[in-house]
Write a structure and sequence with these properties.
Layout: H1 11-22, E1 37-40, E2 43-44, E3 52-54, E4 57-61, H2 62-69, E5 72-76, E6 81-86, E7 94-99, E8 104-107, E9 110-113, E10 119-121, E11 124-128, H3 129-135, E12 139-143, E13 148-152, E14 163-167, E15 173-179, E16 183-199, E17 203-209, E18 212-213, E19 220-222, E20 228-235, E21 243-249, E22 255-259, E23 263-268, E24 271-277, E25 284-289, E26 294-300, E27 305-311, E28 322-326, E29 329-337, E30 347-354, E31 359-367, E32 370-378, E33 386-391, H4 408-425, E34 429-432, H5 444-452, E35 456-463, E36 473-477, H6 484-499, E37 503-508, H7 512-515, E38 521-528, H8 532-539, H9 541-560
Parallel strand pairs: 1-13, 15-18, 33-34, 33-35, 35-38, 36-37
Antiparallel strand pairs: 1-2, 3-4, 4-11, 5-6, 6-7, 7-8, 8-9, 10-11, 12-13, 14-16, 15-16, 16-17, 16-23, 17-21, 19-20, 20-21, 22-23, 24-25, 25-32, 26-27, 27-30, 28-29, 29-30, 31-32, 36-38
Helix pairs in contact: 4-9, 6-9
């Protein structure tokens, strides 16, 4: 299964420190050509601004390259810089920081020089592709006869294959392929190994090693409806060239690939069936998908609803809204969400309309040939629980300061006070590390929670960006407890959906307040106080109340599974 991540917040500080180095540079004029082809992992790219040759270096639109290779890119308008990241928010995170018209760059914090700097042509940022790609370990080639730039993403062909298979037959061949109810099936002969070499969300490319194609095999096929839009095949060069199989998808969906007795099965994540079952303990909703999927849940009020997000899952047309009369459950509704359309995730949203305030309890289980998400309900789960809240900073430590001059220590305390009131009203015992504007040493905060026997620890913060451009919500966890990451995931999803904020992901954070806590712990960066827009939101009592209600809903969900 695949995962995606955003980039680490620590890079923003590096950007600030080096901006002064990178801002003065000569202007480079572009002597361009329009006949250069760009081949990325064997697929011909079609940029709206064609590649240009400047001083024997090829410049290409950075946005096209990052989307094709799965890198992250951010434009820093105030300093005219481009931040490109690979493997963001992981142990292997790498970054390249480029400044328009400046031959100096930062590669993972080390200053390097380019022969030709990035430039802007027709509102597109053009970068020297060999410099950026090789900084990330990708292979770049140039064919002077055909005037073609080739880019092979990392990992390269030397990496271990994802799997292999063996079926009856004398020759190693792809004999046929066809769309199936779950995705795509390939009929093959002989033995083969396969590896995913490209995954951009809507493009999935596999290399079938040690395999050729049958002579009458169609090289491309277009399909109507469903997540699979187009399939294309091509043979690599040389004896071990293998077959390249490319799937173009209409929506971003998860997948599972497995060898079968006949060849290979590519199952795309799709919601297949919905069942509502009544019972003495209340209703149960069963959602069946083609493959195991990531599930996120949160609750809403006025009216009461439980929301189940199936991440990177397609909703087929035969799945319709349901009106039901099963105790507290009055309806089940479905929607397809797309980041490209401005939504906060790719996948299917299931909304359960409830007659009274109850918490969804979600579990998953694999069945023969499909996957089940089982949703039950229960009343408040936090009554009698001991919850530690830590309003970050305080006293002589103001934390971040907003454009208007308000400090993070004030905002954190206001949010915490509203959260304490809601949690205590629900029957929880709340231990706050501070209730006034006083300073509390970092290591004393988890010590207070540990001494009180708290069952969870939540540190409340507002974020800051030195460039004052970043916005959104981040949540951090540390492996101090088996359930810390789950707590962080639930808190994060509740906050992002309640605030409608930019999802800056759940991240690993080696913070003392998390590391030293003995219970599940998370640190939430609600919004960016450094952003004028989000500062106004954080100062709004209604938004503070919304954040407090999100924390309550997250804890209800977290403890419901216990």
């Amino acid at each position: 299964m695949k995962t995606r991540h955003g980039f680490g917040a620590g890079i923003a500080l590096m950007v600030l420190l080096v901006s002064c180095i990178l801002l003065s540079a000569p202007v480079v004029s572009a002597a361009g050509t329009d006949d250069i082809s760009l081949l990325i992992d064997g697929v011909l790219a079609s940029p709206d601004v064609p590649p240009r040759i400047v001083g024997d270096r090829t410049l290409v639109p950075i946005r096209l390259i990052t989307e094709s290779l799965g890198w992250d890119v951010e434009w820093l308008a105030h300093t005219r810089q481009v931040l490109v990241l690979r493997g963001a928010d992981s142990a292997d995170e790498e970054f390249v920081l480029l400044t328009i018209d400046d031959p100096k760059a930062l590669v993972n914090g080390e200053e390097r020089s380019m022969d030709v700097p990035p430039i802007i042509i027709s509102d597109r940022t053009m970068v020297p592709i060999r410099f950026v790609a090789e900084a990330f370990g990708s292979d770049v080639g140039w064919d002077g006869d055909t005037r073609t730039v080739t880019i092979a993403s990392r990992p390269t062909e030397d990496a271990e294959p994802d799997g292999g298979g063996e079926v009856e037959g004398d020759a190693n061949r792809v004999l046929s392929y066809a769309r199936s109810e779950t995705g795509l099936t390939l009929q093959m002969s002989g033995s083969f190994e396969w590896k995913v070499i490209r995954d951009t969300g809507t493009i999935l490319m596999l290399r079938l090693m040690g395999t050729g194609m049958a002579e009458d095999l169609p090289l491309a096929q277009v399909y109507e409806g469903g997540p699979l839009e187009r399939v294309s095949l091509s043979e690599g060069e040389g004896v071990d060239g293998g077959v390249y199989l490319s799937l173009a998808l209409r929506d971003v969906v998860d997948y599972r690939i497995a060898a079968t007795d006949e060849g290979l099965e590519i199952a795309l994540a799709s919601l297949q069936d919905v069942e509502v079952i009544g019972g003495a303990n209340g209703p149960t909703v069963i959602l069946r998908t083609t493959v195991p999927v990531e599930v996120r849940t949160f609750t809403l009020e006025d009216p009461v609803r439980a929301v189940i997000d199936l991440i990177e899952v397609d909703k087929p047309h035969h799945i319709d809204n349901l009106q039901v009369d099963e105790g507290i459950l009055t309806g089940v509704r479905f929607g397809q969400h797309r980041r490209a359309a401005g939504d906060i995730f790719d996948g299917t949203r299931v909304v359960l309309d409830l007659a009274e305030d109850q918490v969804p309890v979600v579990s998953g289980r694999e069945r023969e040939g499909y996957y089940e998400i089982v949703v039950g309900f229960r009343r408040s789960s936090i009554a009698g629980r001991i919850i530690a809240l830590d309003p970050g900073h305080g006293g002589s430590d103001p934390g971040a300061t907003g454009p208007s001059g308000i400090t993070e220590r004030e905002i954190n305390l206001r949010i915490a006070a509203k959260t304490v009131a809601l949690l205590e009203a629900a029957g929880a015992t709340v231990v706050a590390t501070r209730t006034t504007d006083v300073g509390v040493p970092i290591y004393d905060r988890p010590a207070i929670a540990n001494a009180a026997g708290a069952e969870v620890f939540i540190s409340i913060h507002a974020n800051a960006d030195p460039l004052r451009v970043a916005e959104g919500t981040e949540t951090y966890h540390y492996p101090n407890h088996d359930d810390s990451e789950r707590l962080a995931q639930i808190l994060h999803h509740q906050l992002v959906n309640a605030l409608g904020s930019n999802d800056r992901r759940v991240r690993y954070g080696n913070f003392a307040v998390l590391r030293e806590s003995k219970m599940p712990a998370a640190l939430i960066e609600c919004l960016y106080l450094s952003s004028p827009h989000e500062e106004r939101r954080l100062m709004d009592p209604a938004v503070q109340e919304n954040i407090a209600r999100s924390i309550l809903a997250a804890l209800e969900q977290f403890f419901a599974a216990y």
